[in-house]
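Trying the structure run again after the queue cleared.
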Amino acid sequence: MADEATGQDEAKGQAQGGPLLLLVDDDAGNLESLRRIFEREPYRVAAARDAREALEELRREAPSVVLTDVRMPGGDGVSLLRAVKQISPATEVVLMTAYGTVETAVEAMKEGAYDFVEKPLKRSLIVRAVRRAAERALLVRENAELRATLEGVQEDARSLVGTSPAWRRTVDMAKQVASSQSTVLLLGESGTGKEVLARAVHRHSARADKPFVAVSCAAIPETILESELFGYERGAFTGAAARRDGRFGLAHGGTLFLDEVGEISPAVQVKLLRVIQSGEYEPLGSGGKPRHADVRLIAATNRELAAEVAAGRFRDDLYYRLNVIAITCPPLRHRHGDVPLLAHHFLRKFCLRDSRELAGFTPAAMEALERHAWPGNVRELENAIERAVVLARGTLIDVGDLPPTVPGERTDSGEIAVAIGTPLEEVERRLIEETLRRTKGDKKLAAQFLGIAARTIYRKLDLYAAGRPTEEPAAGADATDRGGEK
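Done. C-alpha coordinates:
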Protein backbone atom coordinates (compact mmCIF):
# COMPACT_ATOMS: atom_id res chain seq x y z
CA MET A 1 0.00 0.00 0.00
CA ALA A 2 2.82 2.37 0.85
CA ASP A 3 4.46 1.68 -2.50
CA GLU A 4 1.15 2.27 -4.26
CA ALA A 5 0.65 5.57 -2.46
CA THR A 6 4.18 6.63 -3.31
CA GLY A 7 3.57 5.81 -6.97
CA GLN A 8 0.38 7.86 -6.99
CA ASP A 9 2.16 10.79 -5.37
CA GLU A 10 4.93 10.58 -7.99
CA ALA A 11 2.36 10.49 -10.78
CA LYS A 12 0.59 13.52 -9.36
CA GLY A 13 3.93 15.28 -8.96
CA GLN A 14 4.79 14.64 -12.58
CA ALA A 15 1.39 15.95 -13.60
CA GLN A 16 1.99 19.21 -11.77
CA GLY A 17 4.16 20.39 -14.64
CA GLY A 18 2.19 18.65 -17.39
CA PRO A 19 -0.14 20.20 -19.94
CA LEU A 20 -3.41 21.63 -18.64
CA LEU A 21 -6.59 19.79 -19.68
CA LEU A 22 -9.95 21.54 -19.23
CA LEU A 23 -12.98 19.20 -18.95
CA VAL A 24 -16.41 20.70 -19.71
CA ASP A 25 -19.65 18.73 -19.13
CA ASP A 26 -22.95 19.63 -17.48
CA ASP A 27 -23.37 16.03 -16.28
CA ALA A 28 -21.68 15.86 -12.86
CA GLY A 29 -21.26 12.07 -13.08
CA ASN A 30 -19.56 12.22 -16.48
CA LEU A 31 -17.37 15.10 -15.33
CA GLU A 32 -16.18 13.17 -12.28
CA SER A 33 -15.51 10.04 -14.37
CA LEU A 34 -13.43 12.04 -16.82
CA ARG A 35 -11.53 13.67 -13.99
CA ARG A 36 -10.62 10.26 -12.53
CA ILE A 37 -9.49 9.01 -15.96
CA PHE A 38 -7.20 11.93 -16.71
CA GLU A 39 -5.79 12.41 -13.23
CA ARG A 40 -4.00 9.11 -13.89
CA GLU A 41 -2.55 10.59 -17.09
CA PRO A 42 0.28 13.18 -17.22
CA TYR A 43 -2.09 16.17 -17.22
CA ARG A 44 -3.11 18.94 -14.86
CA VAL A 45 -6.90 18.74 -14.85
CA ALA A 46 -9.43 21.55 -14.49
CA ALA A 47 -13.20 21.16 -14.78
CA ALA A 48 -16.20 23.30 -15.71
CA ARG A 49 -19.94 22.55 -15.75
CA ASP A 50 -20.88 24.88 -18.61
CA ALA A 51 -19.45 27.23 -21.24
CA ARG A 52 -19.44 30.22 -18.88
CA GLU A 53 -17.31 28.45 -16.28
CA ALA A 54 -15.09 27.10 -19.05
CA LEU A 55 -14.34 30.59 -20.34
CA GLU A 56 -13.53 31.76 -16.80
CA GLU A 57 -11.05 28.91 -16.45
CA LEU A 58 -9.65 29.70 -19.88
CA ARG A 59 -8.94 33.32 -18.95
CA ARG A 60 -7.11 32.21 -15.80
CA GLU A 61 -4.78 29.91 -17.73
CA ALA A 62 -4.96 28.80 -21.34
CA PRO A 63 -5.16 24.98 -21.40
CA SER A 64 -3.41 22.82 -23.95
CA VAL A 65 -6.65 20.91 -24.62
CA VAL A 66 -10.34 21.50 -23.95
CA LEU A 67 -12.50 18.35 -23.84
CA THR A 68 -16.10 19.51 -24.00
CA ASP A 69 -19.58 18.07 -24.39
CA VAL A 70 -21.60 19.34 -27.36
CA ARG A 71 -25.05 19.55 -25.77
CA MET A 72 -25.00 21.81 -22.70
CA PRO A 73 -27.37 24.41 -21.25
CA GLY A 74 -26.26 27.99 -21.73
CA GLY A 75 -24.10 27.37 -24.79
CA ASP A 76 -23.25 24.35 -26.92
CA GLY A 77 -19.79 22.88 -27.47
CA VAL A 78 -19.40 24.28 -30.99
CA SER A 79 -20.07 27.82 -29.71
CA LEU A 80 -17.55 27.21 -26.93
CA LEU A 81 -15.10 26.00 -29.56
CA ARG A 82 -15.40 29.31 -31.42
CA ALA A 83 -14.84 31.27 -28.21
CA VAL A 84 -11.81 29.18 -27.28
CA LYS A 85 -10.22 29.78 -30.68
CA GLN A 86 -10.80 33.52 -30.28
CA ILE A 87 -9.23 33.67 -26.80
CA SER A 88 -6.49 31.05 -27.20
CA PRO A 89 -5.91 29.97 -30.82
CA ALA A 90 -3.19 27.51 -29.75
CA THR A 91 -5.61 25.52 -27.55
CA GLU A 92 -6.90 22.33 -29.17
CA VAL A 93 -10.54 21.31 -28.71
CA VAL A 94 -12.00 17.79 -28.67
CA LEU A 95 -15.79 17.46 -28.70
CA MET A 96 -17.88 14.75 -27.02
CA THR A 97 -21.33 14.03 -28.39
CA ALA A 98 -24.06 11.44 -28.17
CA TYR A 99 -25.52 12.90 -31.31
CA GLY A 100 -22.59 12.24 -33.65
CA THR A 101 -23.29 12.90 -37.30
CA VAL A 102 -21.13 13.73 -40.26
CA GLU A 103 -22.67 17.21 -40.26
CA THR A 104 -21.59 17.81 -36.67
CA ALA A 105 -18.07 16.60 -37.44
CA VAL A 106 -17.78 18.76 -40.54
CA GLU A 107 -19.04 21.87 -38.71
CA ALA A 108 -16.69 21.24 -35.79
CA MET A 109 -13.67 20.66 -38.02
CA LYS A 110 -14.40 23.83 -40.00
CA GLU A 111 -14.49 25.78 -36.74
CA GLY A 112 -11.09 24.41 -35.76
CA ALA A 113 -11.85 21.33 -33.63
CA TYR A 114 -9.03 18.81 -33.47
CA ASP A 115 -11.30 15.76 -33.12
CA PHE A 116 -14.64 14.53 -31.79
CA VAL A 117 -15.65 11.33 -29.99
CA GLU A 118 -19.03 9.71 -29.51
CA LYS A 119 -20.76 8.75 -26.30
CA PRO A 120 -20.85 6.36 -24.58
CA LEU A 121 -17.16 7.08 -24.20
CA LYS A 122 -14.50 4.41 -24.31
CA ARG A 123 -11.54 5.16 -22.09
CA SER A 124 -8.90 4.15 -24.66
CA LEU A 125 -10.47 6.25 -27.43
CA ILE A 126 -10.95 9.38 -25.35
CA VAL A 127 -7.43 9.17 -23.87
CA ARG A 128 -5.96 8.71 -27.34
CA ALA A 129 -7.89 11.67 -28.77
CA VAL A 130 -6.76 13.96 -25.93
CA ARG A 131 -3.17 12.72 -26.15
CA ARG A 132 -3.01 13.50 -29.86
CA ALA A 133 -4.57 16.91 -29.31
CA ALA A 134 -2.01 17.65 -26.58
CA GLU A 135 0.80 16.64 -28.95
CA ARG A 136 -0.62 19.01 -31.56
CA ALA A 137 -0.81 21.82 -28.98
CA LEU A 138 2.80 21.13 -28.02
CA LEU A 139 3.83 21.41 -31.66
CA VAL A 140 2.04 24.76 -31.94
CA ARG A 141 3.77 26.00 -28.78
CA GLU A 142 7.17 24.89 -30.07
CA ASN A 143 6.49 26.77 -33.29
CA ALA A 144 5.66 29.86 -31.24
CA GLU A 145 8.89 29.47 -29.27
CA LEU A 146 10.80 29.17 -32.52
CA ARG A 147 9.21 32.41 -33.69
CA ALA A 148 10.25 34.02 -30.39
CA THR A 149 13.80 32.84 -31.03
CA LEU A 150 13.52 34.43 -34.44
CA GLU A 151 12.62 37.77 -32.84
CA GLY A 152 15.72 37.69 -30.64
CA VAL A 153 18.28 36.48 -33.15
CA GLN A 154 19.65 40.01 -33.60
CA GLU A 155 18.47 43.60 -33.76
CA ASP A 156 17.98 43.17 -37.51
CA ALA A 157 15.81 40.06 -37.12
CA ARG A 158 13.17 41.49 -39.42
CA SER A 159 15.62 41.21 -42.31
CA LEU A 160 18.91 39.48 -41.39
CA VAL A 161 17.28 36.21 -40.36
CA GLY A 162 19.61 33.30 -39.75
CA THR A 163 22.01 31.74 -37.29
CA SER A 164 24.10 29.49 -39.55
CA PRO A 165 27.87 30.07 -39.43
CA ALA A 166 28.03 30.97 -43.14
CA TRP A 167 25.34 33.64 -42.79
CA ARG A 168 26.66 34.99 -39.49
CA ARG A 169 30.12 35.51 -41.00
CA THR A 170 28.52 37.46 -43.84
CA VAL A 171 26.41 39.61 -41.51
CA ASP A 172 29.30 40.27 -39.14
CA MET A 173 31.50 41.42 -42.01
CA ALA A 174 28.74 43.68 -43.33
CA LYS A 175 28.34 45.31 -39.91
CA GLN A 176 32.10 45.74 -39.60
CA VAL A 177 32.41 47.62 -42.91
CA ALA A 178 29.28 49.68 -42.33
CA SER A 179 31.06 52.40 -40.38
CA SER A 180 33.52 53.06 -43.22
CA GLN A 181 32.94 55.02 -46.41
CA SER A 182 34.45 52.34 -48.65
CA THR A 183 32.64 50.98 -51.68
CA VAL A 184 31.22 47.50 -51.10
CA LEU A 185 30.69 44.80 -53.72
CA LEU A 186 28.12 42.14 -52.82
CA LEU A 187 28.49 38.83 -54.63
CA GLY A 188 26.26 35.79 -54.75
CA GLU A 189 23.54 33.94 -56.60
CA SER A 190 20.17 35.52 -57.32
CA GLY A 191 17.82 35.52 -54.36
CA THR A 192 20.49 35.26 -51.65
CA GLY A 193 19.57 38.57 -50.01
CA LYS A 194 22.10 41.04 -51.41
CA GLU A 195 19.74 44.01 -51.18
CA VAL A 196 18.77 43.02 -47.64
CA LEU A 197 22.45 43.05 -46.73
CA ALA A 198 22.98 46.40 -48.49
CA ARG A 199 20.19 47.94 -46.44
CA ALA A 200 21.76 46.54 -43.28
CA VAL A 201 25.09 48.17 -44.16
CA HIS A 202 23.26 51.48 -44.64
CA ARG A 203 21.34 51.07 -41.34
CA HIS A 204 24.55 50.60 -39.40
CA SER A 205 26.41 53.44 -41.08
CA ALA A 206 26.73 57.14 -40.20
CA ARG A 207 24.40 57.77 -43.16
CA ALA A 208 21.50 55.83 -41.65
CA ASP A 209 19.32 58.94 -41.35
CA LYS A 210 19.88 59.79 -45.02
CA PRO A 211 18.26 58.21 -48.11
CA PHE A 212 18.88 54.65 -49.26
CA VAL A 213 18.25 54.55 -53.00
CA ALA A 214 18.20 51.24 -54.87
CA VAL A 215 18.32 50.85 -58.63
CA SER A 216 18.22 47.63 -60.62
CA CYS A 217 20.58 48.14 -63.52
CA ALA A 218 19.18 45.09 -65.33
CA ALA A 219 15.59 46.37 -65.14
CA ILE A 220 16.26 49.75 -66.79
CA PRO A 221 16.80 49.85 -70.56
CA GLU A 222 20.32 50.81 -71.57
CA THR A 223 19.07 53.85 -73.48
CA ILE A 224 17.67 55.53 -70.36
CA LEU A 225 19.92 54.13 -67.62
CA GLU A 226 22.30 57.10 -67.89
CA SER A 227 19.54 59.65 -67.36
CA GLU A 228 18.12 57.56 -64.49
CA LEU A 229 21.48 57.54 -62.71
CA PHE A 230 22.66 61.08 -63.36
CA GLY A 231 19.48 63.01 -64.12
CA TYR A 232 18.93 65.65 -66.81
CA GLU A 233 18.20 69.32 -67.37
CA ARG A 234 15.16 70.75 -69.08
CA GLY A 235 15.45 70.43 -72.86
CA ALA A 236 18.25 67.87 -72.67
CA PHE A 237 16.30 65.70 -75.12
CA THR A 238 12.88 65.49 -76.71
CA GLY A 239 10.31 65.14 -73.95
CA ALA A 240 12.56 66.56 -71.19
CA ALA A 241 10.06 69.26 -70.19
CA ALA A 242 11.52 69.80 -66.71
CA ARG A 243 14.73 69.25 -64.78
CA ARG A 244 14.99 65.90 -63.02
CA ASP A 245 17.42 64.59 -60.42
CA GLY A 246 18.93 61.18 -61.06
CA ARG A 247 19.50 58.45 -58.50
CA PHE A 248 22.84 59.97 -57.47
CA GLY A 249 21.06 63.22 -56.67
CA LEU A 250 18.26 61.48 -54.79
CA ALA A 251 20.79 59.54 -52.68
CA HIS A 252 22.77 62.67 -51.72
CA GLY A 253 24.24 62.20 -48.24
CA GLY A 254 23.07 58.59 -48.14
CA THR A 255 23.67 55.28 -49.90
CA LEU A 256 23.19 54.31 -53.54
CA PHE A 257 22.71 50.60 -54.18
CA LEU A 258 23.42 49.44 -57.74
CA ASP A 259 21.94 45.98 -58.15
CA GLU A 260 23.11 43.79 -61.05
CA VAL A 261 25.92 46.21 -61.79
CA GLY A 262 27.43 43.68 -64.20
CA GLU A 263 24.62 44.42 -66.66
CA ILE A 264 25.48 48.07 -67.40
CA SER A 265 26.80 49.03 -70.82
CA PRO A 266 30.43 50.11 -71.49
CA ALA A 267 29.32 53.73 -72.05
CA VAL A 268 27.66 53.96 -68.64
CA GLN A 269 30.58 52.11 -67.06
CA VAL A 270 32.88 54.98 -68.09
CA LYS A 271 30.64 57.60 -66.43
CA LEU A 272 30.21 55.51 -63.32
CA LEU A 273 33.97 55.15 -63.05
CA ARG A 274 34.34 58.93 -63.14
CA VAL A 275 31.87 59.37 -60.27
CA ILE A 276 33.79 56.88 -58.12
CA GLN A 277 37.17 58.46 -58.94
CA SER A 278 36.32 62.16 -58.68
CA GLY A 279 33.04 62.25 -56.79
CA GLU A 280 31.47 64.27 -59.62
CA TYR A 281 28.93 63.58 -62.37
CA GLU A 282 27.23 65.52 -65.15
CA PRO A 283 23.47 65.39 -65.73
CA LEU A 284 22.40 65.22 -69.36
CA GLY A 285 22.15 68.71 -70.86
CA SER A 286 24.12 70.34 -68.02
CA GLY A 287 26.55 71.98 -70.43
CA GLY A 288 29.59 70.45 -68.73
CA LYS A 289 28.68 71.71 -65.26
CA PRO A 290 29.46 68.87 -62.84
CA ARG A 291 27.69 68.15 -59.59
CA HIS A 292 29.16 66.70 -56.44
CA ALA A 293 28.08 63.15 -55.52
CA ASP A 294 28.09 62.67 -51.75
CA VAL A 295 27.01 59.04 -51.72
CA ARG A 296 28.19 55.73 -50.31
CA LEU A 297 28.18 53.23 -53.18
CA ILE A 298 27.19 49.59 -52.74
CA ALA A 299 27.09 47.38 -55.83
CA ALA A 300 25.83 43.83 -56.27
CA THR A 301 26.00 41.19 -58.96
CA ASN A 302 25.32 37.50 -59.48
CA ARG A 303 27.92 37.37 -62.23
CA GLU A 304 31.59 36.47 -61.92
CA LEU A 305 32.91 39.99 -62.58
CA ALA A 306 36.50 38.77 -62.83
CA ALA A 307 35.43 36.50 -65.70
CA GLU A 308 33.51 39.39 -67.29
CA VAL A 309 36.68 41.50 -67.12
CA ALA A 310 38.72 38.72 -68.72
CA ALA A 311 36.12 38.45 -71.49
CA GLY A 312 36.27 42.20 -72.17
CA ARG A 313 32.64 42.84 -71.15
CA PHE A 314 33.45 44.79 -67.99
CA ARG A 315 36.10 47.46 -67.45
CA ASP A 316 38.92 46.28 -65.25
CA ASP A 317 39.48 49.74 -63.73
CA LEU A 318 35.81 49.94 -62.72
CA TYR A 319 35.97 46.41 -61.32
CA TYR A 320 38.89 47.31 -59.06
CA ARG A 321 37.12 50.48 -57.92
CA LEU A 322 34.01 48.52 -57.00
CA ASN A 323 35.84 45.57 -55.49
CA VAL A 324 37.29 47.45 -52.50
CA ILE A 325 35.47 45.26 -49.99
CA ALA A 326 33.79 42.16 -51.41
CA ILE A 327 31.20 40.26 -49.38
CA THR A 328 29.73 37.00 -50.63
CA CYS A 329 26.14 36.11 -49.72
CA PRO A 330 25.98 32.31 -49.27
CA PRO A 331 23.29 30.33 -51.09
CA LEU A 332 20.51 28.95 -48.92
CA ARG A 333 21.71 25.37 -49.45
CA HIS A 334 24.87 26.32 -47.51
CA ARG A 335 22.97 27.94 -44.66
CA HIS A 336 22.22 24.79 -42.68
CA GLY A 337 19.55 25.34 -40.04
CA ASP A 338 18.31 28.69 -41.35
CA VAL A 339 15.33 27.34 -43.31
CA PRO A 340 13.00 26.94 -40.26
CA LEU A 341 13.80 30.46 -39.03
CA LEU A 342 13.27 31.98 -42.46
CA ALA A 343 10.09 29.98 -43.01
CA HIS A 344 8.57 31.26 -39.75
CA HIS A 345 9.76 34.78 -40.54
CA PHE A 346 7.93 34.74 -43.88
CA LEU A 347 4.92 33.00 -42.34
CA ARG A 348 4.51 35.84 -39.86
CA LYS A 349 5.04 38.43 -42.59
CA PHE A 350 2.35 37.08 -44.90
CA CYS A 351 -0.09 36.24 -42.10
CA LEU A 352 0.06 39.88 -41.01
CA ARG A 353 -0.37 41.06 -44.58
CA ASP A 354 -3.32 38.80 -45.34
CA SER A 355 -4.87 38.80 -41.84
CA ARG A 356 -4.45 35.03 -41.53
CA GLU A 357 -4.00 33.08 -38.30
CA LEU A 358 -1.67 30.15 -38.92
CA ALA A 359 0.17 28.49 -36.05
CA GLY A 360 3.11 27.10 -38.01
CA PHE A 361 4.06 24.04 -40.04
CA THR A 362 3.37 20.34 -39.74
CA PRO A 363 6.47 18.19 -39.17
CA ALA A 364 6.11 16.79 -42.70
CA ALA A 365 5.98 20.27 -44.22
CA MET A 366 9.03 21.46 -42.30
CA GLU A 367 10.91 18.32 -43.26
CA ALA A 368 10.09 19.00 -46.92
CA LEU A 369 11.27 22.60 -46.61
CA GLU A 370 14.55 21.54 -45.05
CA ARG A 371 15.11 18.79 -47.62
CA HIS A 372 14.62 21.05 -50.66
CA ALA A 373 17.78 22.39 -52.37
CA TRP A 374 16.29 25.90 -52.97
CA PRO A 375 17.97 26.78 -56.28
CA GLY A 376 16.17 30.13 -56.11
CA ASN A 377 17.55 30.69 -52.60
CA VAL A 378 15.74 32.86 -50.03
CA ARG A 379 13.54 34.47 -52.68
CA GLU A 380 12.22 31.05 -53.71
CA LEU A 381 11.53 30.14 -50.08
CA GLU A 382 9.70 33.43 -49.53
CA ASN A 383 7.50 32.81 -52.58
CA ALA A 384 6.80 29.24 -51.40
CA ILE A 385 5.64 30.45 -47.96
CA GLU A 386 3.52 33.20 -49.49
CA ARG A 387 1.77 30.58 -51.64
CA ALA A 388 1.28 28.29 -48.65
CA VAL A 389 -0.25 31.05 -46.52
CA VAL A 390 -2.77 31.80 -49.27
CA LEU A 391 -3.70 28.15 -49.89
CA ALA A 392 -3.58 26.69 -46.34
CA ARG A 393 -6.95 25.44 -45.13
CA GLY A 394 -6.02 24.35 -41.61
CA THR A 395 -4.20 26.08 -38.79
CA LEU A 396 -0.87 24.53 -39.84
CA ILE A 397 0.81 24.62 -43.24
CA ASP A 398 1.07 21.08 -44.62
CA VAL A 399 3.03 19.56 -47.49
CA GLY A 400 0.09 19.93 -49.86
CA ASP A 401 0.14 23.71 -49.36
CA LEU A 402 3.73 23.96 -50.62
CA PRO A 403 4.66 24.30 -54.32
CA PRO A 404 4.90 21.01 -56.26
CA THR A 405 8.63 21.65 -56.70
CA VAL A 406 9.17 21.16 -52.96
CA PRO A 407 9.54 17.42 -52.26
CA GLY A 408 7.32 15.71 -49.74
CA GLU A 409 4.71 13.01 -49.28
CA ARG A 410 1.46 14.60 -50.42
CA THR A 411 -2.11 13.61 -49.76
CA ASP A 412 -4.52 13.53 -52.66
CA SER A 413 -7.59 15.68 -53.20
CA GLY A 414 -9.96 13.51 -51.17
CA GLU A 415 -12.01 12.57 -54.22
CA ILE A 416 -12.75 9.15 -55.74
CA ALA A 417 -13.43 8.84 -59.46
CA VAL A 418 -16.10 6.28 -60.33
CA ALA A 419 -17.05 5.41 -63.88
CA ILE A 420 -20.73 5.53 -64.86
CA GLY A 421 -22.15 2.02 -64.77
CA THR A 422 -20.03 0.83 -61.81
CA PRO A 423 -22.19 -1.50 -59.67
CA LEU A 424 -23.40 0.10 -56.46
CA GLU A 425 -21.80 -2.57 -54.28
CA GLU A 426 -18.43 -1.89 -55.93
CA VAL A 427 -18.82 1.86 -55.31
CA GLU A 428 -19.59 1.08 -51.66
CA ARG A 429 -16.57 -1.19 -51.36
CA ARG A 430 -14.19 1.35 -52.88
CA LEU A 431 -15.55 4.11 -50.67
CA ILE A 432 -15.08 2.04 -47.50
CA GLU A 433 -11.59 0.88 -48.45
CA GLU A 434 -10.47 4.38 -49.46
CA THR A 435 -11.84 5.89 -46.25
CA LEU A 436 -10.00 3.27 -44.21
CA ARG A 437 -6.81 4.01 -46.10
CA ARG A 438 -7.04 7.69 -45.31
CA THR A 439 -7.84 7.05 -41.65
CA LYS A 440 -4.89 4.63 -41.53
CA GLY A 441 -7.14 1.68 -40.70
CA ASP A 442 -9.04 3.41 -37.90
CA LYS A 443 -12.46 1.78 -38.36
CA LYS A 444 -14.12 3.92 -35.70
CA LEU A 445 -13.03 7.13 -37.41
CA ALA A 446 -13.90 5.78 -40.85
CA ALA A 447 -17.38 4.92 -39.60
CA GLN A 448 -17.79 8.47 -38.27
CA PHE A 449 -16.86 9.95 -41.63
CA LEU A 450 -19.18 7.58 -43.50
CA GLY A 451 -22.08 8.10 -41.09
CA ILE A 452 -22.46 4.40 -40.25
CA ALA A 453 -21.78 2.18 -37.25
CA ALA A 454 -18.32 0.69 -36.85
CA ARG A 455 -19.80 -2.81 -36.78
CA THR A 456 -21.11 -2.23 -40.29
CA ILE A 457 -17.56 -1.73 -41.50
CA TYR A 458 -16.41 -4.89 -39.72
CA ARG A 459 -19.23 -6.88 -41.34
CA LYS A 460 -18.49 -5.47 -44.79
CA LEU A 461 -14.79 -6.28 -44.47
CA ASP A 462 -15.64 -9.85 -43.47
CA LEU A 463 -17.80 -10.15 -46.59
CA TYR A 464 -15.05 -8.76 -48.82
CA ALA A 465 -12.54 -11.18 -47.27
CA ALA A 466 -14.94 -14.08 -47.95
CA GLY A 467 -15.27 -13.03 -51.57
CA ARG A 468 -18.86 -11.84 -51.21
CA PRO A 469 -19.05 -8.14 -52.19
CA THR A 470 -22.48 -7.58 -50.70
CA GLU A 471 -25.32 -9.17 -48.81
CA GLU A 472 -29.03 -8.83 -48.70
CA PRO A 473 -29.74 -7.05 -45.42
CA ALA A 474 -32.36 -8.39 -43.13
CA ALA A 475 -35.39 -6.23 -42.54
CA GLY A 476 -34.47 -3.40 -40.20
CA ALA A 477 -30.75 -4.12 -40.35
CA ASP A 478 -29.85 -0.61 -41.42
CA ALA A 479 -31.91 0.86 -38.65
CA THR A 480 -30.13 -1.36 -36.16
CA ASP A 481 -26.71 -0.42 -37.51
CA ARG A 482 -27.48 3.24 -37.30
CA GLY A 483 -29.24 3.02 -33.98
CA GLY A 484 -26.03 3.53 -32.06
CA GLU A 485 -25.71 6.97 -33.59
CA LYS A 486 -29.00 8.32 -32.37
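The longest helix spans residues 123-151. Worth checking whether this holds up in the mutant runs.
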